[in-house]
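INTERNAL AUDIT FORM
Audit reference: QA-55
Scope: verify that the stored structure record matches its stored sequence.
Auditor: D.O.
Record contents follow.
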Amino acid sequence: MILVRESIWVNNFNLNHMNSKGEYSVKKIGKILTAAILILVMVAGLVIPGSAAATPKNVIVIVSDGVSYNQYLAANYYLNGKAGASTQEKFPVKLAMSTYSHGQSNVITDDIESVYDVGMWNDPLRFMFGATDSASAATAMSTGVKTNDAGVGANQAGAPVKHILEDFEALGKSTGVVTNVPFAHATPAGFSAHNASRNNYDLIGKEQYNSTLEVVMGAGHPLYNDNGELVDTPLYTYCSVDTWTGIKDGTLPFSDSNGDGTADPWTYIQEKADFEALQAGATPDRVFGIAKVPQTTQEYRGNPFDTKDAFVEPFLTDVPNLVTMAKGALNVLDNNKNGFFLMIEAGATDWCGHFGQSGRLIEEMAEFFDTVDAVCAWVEKNSSWNDTLLVVTSDHETGYLTGTPGALNNVINNGKGVMPTMTWNTNTMDKKYAGMYWHSNQLVPFFAKGAGATSFNTVADLKDPVRGAYLDNTEISVVIRQLMGTAPSGWAIKDVYLAVDRNLVPFSMQKNWTNSITRNDFCTLAFELCKTVMKAELQTPTEEKPMPFTDTTSDVVYTLNQLGIIGGKTPTTFAPNDLITRQEAAVLMNNLATYLKCAMLKELGAPNYADGWSIAAWAKTAVDNAYMLGVMSSTGNGNFSPTANYSVEQAIVSMLRFYKLKNTGDNYVWDVAR
């Protein structure tokens, strides 16, 4: 969503904790006024009250790809004869969720067509435009950062962004991804890999194999067709010959997943019986399972364009279903007594929508419902709702499913066991995209139960006239990270993830947000800013200008020293691991402002800190300038706290403020990462 003008940000500059109001300039202010007002409300909901926070041991996220409210109705009507009959629809937390992405642009542009707007209900055809793809939607859910369509675990610049499951791995927990479409497809990739394009299946598969994941399961087998039959000519669509051989034979490089210093091999499985055997009893610690089908475990069987009613085409009997894979994954992951994170995707529901297959949609929805039931049963038998958080949602809607053509109305109930009246609508009103029905931009259902689930109610502070309270897909990771204690502080969340989105925070620093920042890490952030804003090139020492410091060989430090931004602790030492105090940070940022040629925000005036007397004389001017630049202010109660350490998140927000100062005006549009 896009916010309001730069001048408003100046007038409302909050002096406490450097807390930006998050208000930015736009080009089309008239078009997006409603969105601007809504986002100001939403930002306030990013901090979860302590009373609502319960730290889960396990987190399970189930994603039904391409599913919105009418897909639920169609399945419920056929399977149960009534609406609201699935288990998740009875969860204590029932909300809606927006799913928009940054769109296809590789530059920052006005993304209004991709933003969910409640006004679409007055013009339902608008729901057909500006929809996300599965890769960017999964990335938003997993990382908290909006990205371009096709990006997986990467920001708009293609740089890697930290996944939730990587937070869990850092906490000593196990992680996994399971799907009934190819294992390296958009949604599992969007939760487990880092790549600018979802279509780089082979690279994604290799990254999954060499990651710290404990479970990867899905389709994508090169030696079988969609009916589970051996083929004469292998189809290496989802992995290369080398990758397939390396996974099958265990010769592909693999990582140390449990942190004991020794690489942990995978157990590879492909037979249905081996998937079934994982559901109970002892299991290996790591399992890479590829069912003997290339694309989907059932949906593409027989005629992939079949439009028969549900449960007419016989099912394949030699491949595991999603329930089996989910139960097996849970039994593997609970080997770790510290807990786990598991993403389960009912991916073939999306494929049904793309081809307008009403019968197969109901079949796939039935498998999705059964999977949720199986996971709930596992929680109640092997864990508890006090220990486990379960989220059930979707990445977007596919096919613009309605009851009658052209308007977003409900599918029509014709009774249990009878196909509902259903219409698939084209996204351009007169034709299909690439021969398929496409995604729409409507809200999708969101359900949660278990440890910390009510925290999602706190961030769902936007209102839709039809669906009611809704959150954005980026807020899934925000809430989970706050529950797990791996999120930035509440005041900094929005700006930290916006800085990540703007490529200001390297992957190695996307953690430990509240820690004090070292001189070396400050240099890393400052250099990323200079590189982005001023296109500063990395320099290397020369005979004419050698490195002045004996305790570092960093070209980043050398570059910033040559630019006059940072000096040493002594003429010959840099002290890279020393922590930076707030007054030292002010001096460094004053130097940074000089290099970036940033103008003071004179409207702010000079600060009058209650503890101003304690600011060192050598830092006083820099502290005043940092305040008037709008990049640094008080720690609360009117104090500057000059000798307190500056934190990672404070430094990141300061860099974002600098970035903002250099990118204002009507031709620049700010949007937020949640």
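Auditor finding: record pair retrieved intact. Residues 1-52, 104-110, 665-674 have pLDDT under 50 and may be disordered.
Action required: none
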